[in-house]
Amino acid sequence: VPGEMKEVVLWSPEEVTSWLTDNAVPEYCEPLRSFTGRDLINLTEEDFKKSPLSRVSSDSGQRLLNMIEGLKMAHHMEAHKNGHANGHVRAGDAARQNGFGAALKLNGVPNGFKKEMIKIPMPEPERSQYPMEWGKTFLAFIYALCCFVFTTVTISVVHERVPPKEVQPPLPDAFFDRFDRVQWAFSICEINGMILVGLWFVQWLLLKYKSIISRRFFCIVGTLYLYRCITMYVTTLPVPGMHFKCSPKLFGDWESHLRRIMKLIAGGGLSITGSHNMCGDYLYSGHTVILTLTYLFIKEYSPRRLWWYHWLCWALSMVGMFCILLAHDHYTVDVVVAYYITTRLFWWYHTMANQQVLKEASQTNLLARVWWYKAFQYFEKNVQGIVPRSYHWPLRCPALARGRQVKYSRLVSDT
C-alpha cells in the first residue's frame, strides 16, 4: 500500500470508531466496532443491504461510502503511487526519468512542474443532515404550552376535590417517619430548579442544532405534563402534611377560577413566587419532572469531557428532589413516579430518534405502538442520525460569515 495510505489501512478498531464519531456518523460505531481501517475502506454497497448495517442506515450507506471515497482521495492526493505529488509530477523524479539530472529548468508551462495553488469553490450540500425546521419547533412549543395551561386548569379543578386535612389526615409515608419537616427546604428545591433551567437555557443558546433539540424538549415536557394531568385527576390524594394552608374553595365560581389559573401561570407554578397555594397536585411531582428533565438534557447535549459540569447538575437535581421530601410537600411516591416516568420517556424518545430503523413502523418495532408515534415521526423524519454536540456563538460576525461562504481544497506539491 503506498505512502500515507498505510495509515488508514493500519487503523485499529478504536481509531475507526473515533473517525466515525468525529465525522458525525456515530450510528455506525456499534455495527462497525470490530472493523479495522482495511475493513472500512473495503466496504461496498452490498454490505449495507445486509444486517447489521441495513438496520442503522437510512440512505443505503451512501453518505458513509462517499466519506470513505473522500478519505481515499485525500490520501491518494498526498502521495500518489506513481510518484506524482498532488497530481503534478515531482521535479526530481521527472528529471531522473528523463535523464536530465539536476540541470533541468522549470519553465512554468503546465508540464513544467510549476508549484500551484488551486482555488475550488465547494458549494454547500443542498439538504442538511440536520435541518432546523423552525416551523416544527414552533408547533412543539405550542403543544408544550397547551399542556402547561391544561395542567394549571386541572390543578384548579382538583383543588376543589381535596378533602379538608381535619377530615382526611395525611397518608403514612416512610420518609416522613424518618425525617422531620424542614420549612425552608422547598425553597431550596425551587432555587435549584431555577438554576438548572438557567444553565440549560444558556447551553441551548450556544447549541448549533438548537431547533432540533428544543423541539425534543418541548415534546417530552409537554407529554409529561399531560400525563400529570391524568394522574392528578383520576386519584386525589390528601395533603401530605398538616402544615398546608390551601386557598379557599370556589364552588363553581368560574371567574375566580380563571383569575387563579392566570396567577398560577404568571408565577410559573412556583411557591417561591407566591402563585401556588392550591392543593391536590401531588401524583406526580412537577418539580421533580423539571429537576430531572433539565439535568438529562444538559448531560445529553454537552461534551463528555465536562464531567464536573454533569456532576454539578446531577447534585443540584438530587438535592432538589431530596428537599421536596424534606419539606413534606410531596409524598415519596410522587417523587419516585415522576423520576421514573421522566427518565423513561426521555430514554425512549432519544433511542427512537437515534435509530433510523425505529422511525419506521413495523411488526418488530413495538415502540411504534405508543400513542405519540405519528407526531414523533413528523418531528424526527428528516433528522438523519445522532445530533452532534456542536456549539457556536449565537451572534456571528458578518465578516466571518462572508469568509465561510467559499471553501477551498489546497493542493501543495513538494517542489
UniProtKB/TrEMBL annotation:
<dbReference type="GO" id="GO:0005886">
    <property type="term" value="C:plasma membrane"/>
</dbReference>
<dbReference type="InterPro" id="IPR025749">
    <property type="entry name" value="Sphingomyelin_synth-like_dom"/>
</dbReference>
<keyword id="KW-0333">Golgi apparatus</keyword>
<feature type="transmembrane region" description="Helical">
    <location>
        <begin position="282"/>
        <end position="298"/>
    </location>
</feature>
<dbReference type="InterPro" id="IPR041418">
    <property type="entry name" value="SAM_3"/>
</dbReference>
<dbReference type="GO" id="GO:0047493">
    <property type="term" value="F:ceramide cholinephosphotransferase activity"/>
</dbReference>
<keyword id="KW-0808">Transferase</keyword>
<dbReference type="GO" id="GO:0016301">
    <property type="term" value="F:kinase activity"/>
</dbReference>
<dbReference type="InterPro" id="IPR013761">
    <property type="entry name" value="SAM/pointed_sf"/>
</dbReference>
<keyword id="KW-0746">Sphingolipid metabolism</keyword>
<feature type="transmembrane region" description="Helical">
    <location>
        <begin position="307"/>
        <end position="327"/>
    </location>
</feature>
<dbReference type="GO" id="GO:0005789">
    <property type="term" value="C:endoplasmic reticulum membrane"/>
</dbReference>
<dbReference type="GO" id="GO:0000139">
    <property type="term" value="C:Golgi membrane"/>
</dbReference>
<feature type="transmembrane region" description="Helical">
    <location>
        <begin position="137"/>
        <end position="158"/>
    </location>
</feature>
<dbReference type="GO" id="GO:0046513">
    <property type="term" value="P:ceramide biosynthetic process"/>
</dbReference>
<keyword id="KW-0472">Membrane</keyword>
<feature type="transmembrane region" description="Helical">
    <location>
        <begin position="217"/>
        <end position="235"/>
    </location>
</feature>
<dbReference type="GO" id="GO:0006915">
    <property type="term" value="P:apoptotic process"/>
</dbReference>
<keyword id="KW-0443">Lipid metabolism</keyword>
<comment type="similarity">
    <text>Belongs to the sphingomyelin synthase family.</text>
</comment>
<keyword id="KW-1133">Transmembrane helix</keyword>
<dbReference type="InterPro" id="IPR001660">
    <property type="entry name" value="SAM"/>
</dbReference>
<keyword id="KW-0418">Kinase</keyword>
<dbReference type="InterPro" id="IPR045221">
    <property type="entry name" value="Sphingomyelin_synth-like"/>
</dbReference>
<protein>
    <recommendedName>
        <fullName>Phosphatidylcholine:ceramide cholinephosphotransferase 1</fullName>
        <ecNumber>2.7.8.27</ecNumber>
    </recommendedName>
</protein>
<dbReference type="GO" id="GO:0033188">
    <property type="term" value="F:sphingomyelin synthase activity"/>
</dbReference>
<feature type="transmembrane region" description="Helical">
    <location>
        <begin position="333"/>
        <end position="349"/>
    </location>
</feature>
<feature type="transmembrane region" description="Helical">
    <location>
        <begin position="184"/>
        <end position="205"/>
    </location>
</feature>
<keyword id="KW-0812">Transmembrane</keyword>
<dbReference type="GO" id="GO:0006686">
    <property type="term" value="P:sphingomyelin biosynthetic process"/>
</dbReference>
<dbReference type="Pfam" id="PF18016">
    <property type="entry name" value="SAM_3"/>
</dbReference>
<keyword id="KW-0053">Apoptosis</keyword>
<feature type="domain" description="SAM">
    <location>
        <begin position="11"/>
        <end position="74"/>
    </location>
</feature>
<dbReference type="Pfam" id="PF14360">
    <property type="entry name" value="PAP2_C"/>
</dbReference>
